Structure formats: structure tokens, C-alpha cells
Amino acid sequence: MKKILAIVLVLAMALSLAACGGDTGSSAPAGGSSAAGDSSTAAQSITYWSMWTSEEPQGKVIAEAAAAFEAETGIHVNIEWKGRDITTVLAAALDGGESIDVFDDDFQRVSTQFSSYCYDLEDMAAAAGYEDFAVAALPAAVRRWAGSLVCIPYQPYTSGVFFTMSSFEAAGLVDEEGNAIVPTTWDELLTTCKALKDAGYTALAQDDAYTMYAYGFLLARLIGQEAVSTLAKEGGWAENEAAKQAAQAIVDLKENGYLSSTSPDAYPAGENEIGFGTASMVINASWVPSEITNNTDCDETWGFFNFPDMGGTDPATVANIGAQAMAVNKNSANAQAAFDFIMFITSGEWDQTMALETSSIPVDTRNTEWPEMIAGVRDGFNAQTDVYDWNMGLNDNADIKESLTAYLAQLFEGTMTAQEFVDSMDALY
Q1: Burial, 182: exposed, middle or buried (Cβ in 10 Å; 0-12, 13-18, 19+)?
Q2: Of 30, 89, 117, 192, which is the most buried if we count CB atoms within 10 A?
Q3: 345-349: long-range pairs with CB below 8 Å, 24+
């Protein structure tokens, strides 16, 4: 009887220990720290709010990648296609405790407006070796805005001067191997413009939607974006020699006939002149070759060079570079799984697929196949060392935007002098 009682007691103790779960087996996997409450990448489902729609090329790639991620990891990705409305609905959803693990938007907006909602990815990124293949300027910009790596950029664009090889060939601006001879300084750009004009081309197309963009590039090259921002916010245009110099550069382009007689044209009429074969170059971002091709059904080989050095503060290796970015909700219970999904999308096979399917730049430097339309951008993009914001600091005072745009239109029309421009700007303050 005593032996039977002892056996019963031992069995009872074993069952009690099993119920208490003595071996949890739920520690975060190698490859990154997890958020509080994260049960590791063995989580069965994560929710992703997407800035795309399911019908867009980007959305189609992401949907395919999510299916591949589930097949490989067993983790289902519940995608909610929010489109561009995500910018207006995301903060309220996160404040309300909506179950969101991953979200994306413009990478500067995520790094500034939404950074307080983001999980710090530094440790997980380091464990994944992210810096070994990331385009260096992109995480550097995120850290500058947010203070740490709060998101992973993808599908980047760069900016500078885009041109057609056919126009450069007609103007004799190619070497013996057929490579374009591109300018690196402003004086060299003026020489290039003259050769193109002599060959019968409008050297530079200019649309009304990008007048701040062109002037911002000129001004930032001379004094740097921080000084441009200060000028926009505080004034003092007439006392700033660079402000007048940049305005005079536009006046000179117009007076020398390097801009069309109708510039600035109503967007996209100016850039479309390139597709129709009457203009050669445009200051814009790396979506413009695809945009012009779609608008005009042209069949051109595209060239690119970084906006020239003006002999001022910034070299030609600084550009307006943008991207989208994916972030992990700081309250996600599945932070490691969410990060793993982000890396799955933004590196390797699926980054390459995204680039080819959307005619965009690979964000993983190991991916060497670029879309044919922007293949000429690669060397210039890889040379970039720092990032300008959109319009290079001129956006930092919304109160002057409308008037600044109007005065720049007059500069490009040739109806305002550089001195009149800076005086008119100061009158706004």
C-alpha cells in the first residue's frame, strides 16, 4: 500500500511540473533582440498596413513576397492596403491601439512624423548585418532625422540631370567609345548647353512643378541645405550673395537660349519635349525617364549626371534622395517576425524583383541588375555621400511657398531680374 501511495505522489508531482511549463522554449531567435511580449519569429501572423494598393506594381510585388515569406517561415502576413491615405489615418490607428506590426510611408515622414511610434531597429539590424549591404546614405538620413534606425528604406530614388543619349550624340558630346561626356561643374554645364543648342535642341526642359527644385539645387550647392533652410525661415535674401547668384544662373540660362521660350511649362509639357526629341536634359528624379517614356511613347537610351559642383559648400555627391520605408510598431508583440518580414522584402531576391518590376533602384547593393531605363544612374547614385530634403530646405517655411513659386516662375520666364527676385523675397518678411 505504501509503495502504491508513493507512485501516485510521484506521478502527481510530474503532472504538476508539466502544467507549470518548466521549459518555455520561447526565447527570441538568434539574429536580433525582440520587443517585450514578442514570442519570436514562430508567431503565426503579423499585420502590415501598406501605403500601396493591391493593383499597383509595388503592391503586386509585396503580395507575392508575403506569400513566399509565409511559405518559407510559416508566418502569415495580413496585408491591409491603405494606399496614400495611410499618412492621414496611421497615427490615429496607432494611438487607438490598432493591431499593426508593420507599416510604411515616405521614409522622411516615417523618420520624423511617425518616429515616436517606431520600434528601434538598431540591434536587430546589426544582428542581420544590414549595414553590409545597405545604401549608406539612406540609413544615415534616417538616423539624422530620428536619432536612431527606426525604419528600413526601400525603393529609393535619386536626383540630378537626366538626358537622352541621342541628343548628346547629335551634339558631339560622346567619346570614342560612345560614352556621354558629362559636365561636373557649372561652367562645364553651360558649355554642354551651348553644344546642345547649336545642335538644335532646347538644352534644359523646365516645368512649373519643379521650379523650386531647380533653384533649391543651385542654392544648396552654394551654401548647403541648413543655410537654405535658415534663409527660407528668416529672410535676408538681398544680403545673401548666394541667393542672388543662384537666381542669376537661371536668368543666364534663359538669356542664352538654353531654356525653351515657353518655360516654365505647365507640367508635364516641358519634360515631354525630351520624349518628343526637341529638348535634351531635365533636372529631376529617377522616375522621370519612365514618366517621359509613358507620356510620349519614346524609345530613348537615358543618361544621367549628378547636379554639378557650383564651387560652394556642397560637392556634387549630395542629392535629393528619397525612398519609402518600412517600420515596426513599437507596441508589436511580434517585433522580430515583423523585422524579418521587412528584411525579406527589402533585400535579396525581393528587392531585386521590386526594382525590376517598378523601374526603380535596388536598395540592396548586392543586387547588380538595374532596370534598363535607369541603368545610367548607377554610378552617380553610388557616389552619393549625403541627402538633401525635397526642395533642399526651401520647404521649411510654408508661408513663403506660394510667393516663392510665383517669383521663380518669373525668373524662368525672363520677366524678373535676380535683384528684383531677392528684393521681392525680402518683402515677404
Answers
A1: buried
A2: 192
A3: 345/62, 345/65, 345/69, 345/154, 346/152, 346/153, 346/154, 347/133
- 264: cis peptide before it, omega within 30°? yes
Burial, 197: exposed, middle or buried (Cβ in 10 Å; 0-12, 13-18, 19+)? middle
Sign (positive/negative) of CA torsion 261, 264, 266, 267?
positive
> Which residues on adjacent β-strands are paired with residue 279?
202
Rounded CA separation 363/142 (Å): 14
- Residues 133-178: pLDDT tens digits? 998 889 999 999 999 999 999 999 999 999 999 999 999 999 999 9
Integer Cα distance of 351 and 135 in angstroms: 13
Residues 279/205, Cβ–Cβ less than 8 Å? yes
**Cβ–Cβ < 8 Å for 329, 102:** yes
Task: Report cis status (omega within 30 of 0) of the bond before 268.
Answer: yes
Q: Say how far apart CA 297 and CA 149 lie, in whole Å.
A: 41
Backbone angles phi, psi at 150, to 5 degrees: -100, -5
Cα 257–chain centre separation: 33
**Mind listing the domains of the chain with CATH numbers?**
45-158+321-365 (3.40.190.10), 159-320+387-427 (3.40.190.10)
Q: Which of 119, 158, 186, 136 is nearest to 342 (CA)?
A: 119
- State the pLDDT confidence band at 260, using cuts at 50, 70 and 90: very high
Neighbours of 110 (CB within 10 A): 28
Q: 420: burial class by Cβ within 10 Å (0-12, 13-18, 19+)?
A: middle
pLDDT in tens, 323-355: 999 999 999 999 999 999 999 999 999 999 999
The β-bridge partners of 80 are: 49
Say which residues have a Cβ less than 8 Å from residue 312's Cβ, sequence separation at least 6: 221, 222, 223, 224, 242
**Res 375 pLDDT > 50:** yes
